[in-house]
User: Which sequence fits this backbone?
């Protein structure tokens, strides 16, 4: 079931749809099995740092103002920081990933999904390396975020945020102990920084820009203005400092601003000087009497005159019982008026700053210029961009990469991509976050043993004494210090901590793998009786487009990041044959020699499964993998990847296969297709046509 959630405390349930994957880990890998309930190898070191007085477990609306300076300081002092998000859903029904998506098509889906769902929890963990590089200290924050609408927006209103909820995601979070009441009632509000900057600019310019004039020609509006002026003049004749106006709607507020700003409504006209006399003499009307619809020159003269006139009061927009009303504040001198304007401007900007809320953390992450670490984090990054930076994400992937690069100047590392770089002897075939954390941090696992052997290899290669880094929670940040490893899995803060802990181990292992490949020596000794040989892993990428993006400036004996900078900004792409995408530099060129591109020239109600079956019936060996392409994409239609093993076993080339398919057509089907073999260029799929052919129904 899919829920439409408004920025209020109730949910509406209009439709029922298929259950959609609930979180990053569940979406791509299936639910992570329960972790082994034993202490990691370094929990003793963590326990030694525990203090009786601990930080609050969660960051909420109630304590955010106190926590924000602590978060900023932790980011400024850290060596790197890791992040993780929980969301109300991941996939719209029409925006699921296809295996053969090109990156522009995949990004278009991610863009749509990140603008439709909402972040419910934000995890941040700041890791500081010791001087000898042997250990890390983590300060972890788990924040509930919720787009709470302001009761009254002094900037003119932002509207109510509507977002999607997926029942699968909600059910998964509930199963993991997510506190939905805390999310709605105590979630930290936020406003995209683009909107915040626009609102502040509007506030700053609003005092100088003249308002457009409204023609008052209806009797009720004329009577309203007459009563208003009578009330205000009576107040000006007295000595009360403030006059509170009671208005029915925003149009009456507009009339108040307009009519109370006119000098002609308060200063009598000079005796004997009339509009008719001025026109008779060929003079322009007095600025005091100029009306809407007159020439631009006359209107400009009126505006100058009105600005120079001091009316003796300031009009302030306030909230009364949840409605926007106006207050008149007496300002006897121009200096008093200037002071009132400055105070009101500062107050309204402060309101907008409060509305920006958790977006301040995004600014702090950018400003610290430290390396950022995520796990399978393309979704996390785009959700952050849409929520905290600009909800209208760029339409093109290349522009989106520039936006992300600007907000992560210290670089980004993806632990899922790094884990995929390690050789088979590291035994890391399962690269979900929970399994990586469990396998690399708990004692007596084969993966932990392989990591220890790899660190010995690195020690000999670097002529240093190195070991697997220890990780401990900083004093006052021991909320996740538990005797049961993984007890808080799928809470964003804990997942962020796991991501950083995994990265601290993977970084030197990737360095060791690079040295192993270059030297031809295995980083992990083979079992007894097996011949030693070079590792089959190739991680020594010679491209270094992003070498300058890393930021590891701690004076330590050993720092792994300078040795793996070629992997900065390379994000894992799940359910794809793309090895990664690059935030900095060019994405890798895809090689798809066994892919057919099919364009339907007949009826459109054909499912990709039908295409696969028809290809098999027409002579395609094995089981072709078919992906439907979104309408409006570069290609359109379908991509069908042939079964490579079956093709080789049958001794068929692609051209021979196409000819076989064409020759097998014994009759013309109502469903006609155009097919071509795909050759992938730099970011754009190109093809060489092999003629129209028909797939039998």
Assistant:
């Amino acid at each position: 079931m899919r829920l439409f959630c408004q920025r209020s405390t109730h949910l509406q349930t209009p439709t029922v749809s298929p259950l959609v994957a609930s979180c990053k880990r569940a979406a791509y890998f299936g639910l992570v099995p329960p972790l082994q309930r034993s202490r990691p190898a370094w929990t003793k070191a963590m326990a030694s740092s525990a203090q009786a007085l601990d930080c609050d477990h969660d960051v909420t609306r109630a304590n955010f103002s106190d926590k924000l300076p602590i978060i900023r300081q932790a980011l400024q002092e850290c060596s790197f920081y890791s992040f993780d998000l929980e969301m109300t859903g991941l996939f719209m029904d029409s925006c699921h990933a296809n295996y053969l998506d090109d990156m522009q098509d995949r990004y278009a889906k991610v863009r749509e999904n990140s603008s439709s769902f909402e972040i419910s929890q934000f995890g941040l963990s700041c890791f500081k390396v010791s001087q000898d590089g042997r250990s890390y200290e983590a300060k972890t924050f788990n924040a509930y975020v919720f787009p709470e609408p302001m009761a009254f927006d002094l900037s003119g209103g932002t509207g109510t945020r509507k977002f999607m909820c997926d029942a699968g995601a909600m059910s998964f979070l509930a199963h993991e102990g997510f506190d939905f009441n805390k999310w709605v009632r105590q979630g930290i509000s936020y406003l995209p920084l683009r909107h915040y900057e626009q609102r502040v600019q509007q506030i700053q310019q609003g005092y100088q820009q003249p308002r457009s004039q409204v023609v008052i020609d209806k009797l009720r509006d004329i009577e309203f203005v007459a009563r208003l002026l009578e009330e205000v003049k009576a107040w000006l004749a007295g000595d009360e400092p403030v006059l509170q106006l009671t208005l029915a709607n925003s149009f009456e507020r507009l009339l108040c601003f307009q009519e109370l700003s006119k000098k002609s409504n308060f200063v009598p006209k000079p005796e004997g000087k009339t509009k008719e006399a001025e026109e008779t003499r060929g003079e322009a009307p007095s600025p005091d009497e100029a009306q809407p619809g007159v020439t631009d020159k006359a209107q400009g003269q009126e505006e100058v005159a009105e600005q120079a006139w001091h009316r003796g009061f300031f009009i302030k927009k306030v909230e009364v019982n949840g409605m926007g009303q106006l207050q008149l504040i007496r300002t006897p001198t121009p200096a008093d008026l200037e002071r009132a304007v400055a105070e009101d401007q500062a107050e309204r900007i402060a309101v907008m700053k409060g509305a920006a809320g958790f977006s301040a953390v995004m600014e702090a992450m950018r400003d610290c210029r430290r390396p950022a670490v995520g796990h399978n984090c393309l979704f996390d990054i785009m959700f952050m961009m849409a929520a905290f930076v600009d909800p209208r994400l760029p339409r093109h992937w290349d522009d989106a990469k520039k936006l992300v690069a600007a907000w992560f100047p210290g670089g980004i590392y993806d632990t899922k991509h790094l884990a995929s770089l390690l050789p088979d002897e590291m035994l890391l075939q399962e690269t979900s976050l929970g399994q990586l954390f469990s396998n690399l941090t708990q004692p007596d696992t084969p993966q932990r043993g392989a990591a220890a052997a790899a660190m010995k290899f690195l020690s000999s290669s670097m002529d240093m004494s190195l070991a697997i880094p220890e990780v401990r929670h900083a004093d006052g940040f021991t909320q996740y210090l538990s005797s049961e490893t993984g007890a808080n899995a799928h809470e964003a803060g804990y997942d962020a901590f796991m991501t950083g802990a995994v990265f601290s181990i993977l970084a030197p292992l990737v360095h060791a793998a690079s040295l192993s490949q270059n030297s031809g020596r295995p980083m992990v000794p083979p079992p007894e009786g097996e011949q030693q040989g070079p590792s089959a892993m190739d991680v020594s990428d010679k491209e270094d487009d992003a070498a300058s993006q890393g930021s590891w400036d701690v004076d330590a004996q050993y720092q792994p990041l300078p040795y793996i900078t070629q992997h900065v900004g390379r994000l894992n792409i799940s359910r794809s044959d793309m090895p990664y995408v690059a935030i900095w530099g060019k994405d890798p060129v895809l090689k798809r020699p066994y892919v057919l591109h099919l364009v339907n020239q007949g009826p459109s109600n054909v499912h990709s499964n039908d295409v696969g079956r028809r290809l098999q019936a027409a002579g395609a060996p094995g089981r072709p993998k078919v992906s439907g392409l979104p309408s409006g994409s570069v290609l359109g239609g379908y991509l069908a990847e042939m079964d490579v093993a079956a093709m080789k076993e049958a001794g068929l080339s692609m051209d021979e296969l196409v000819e076989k398919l064409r020759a097998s057509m014994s009759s013309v089907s109502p469903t006609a297709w155009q097919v071509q073999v795909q050759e992938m260029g730099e970011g754009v799929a190109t093809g060489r046509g092999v003629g129209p052919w028909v797939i039998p129904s």
Remarks:
- The mean pLDDT is 74.
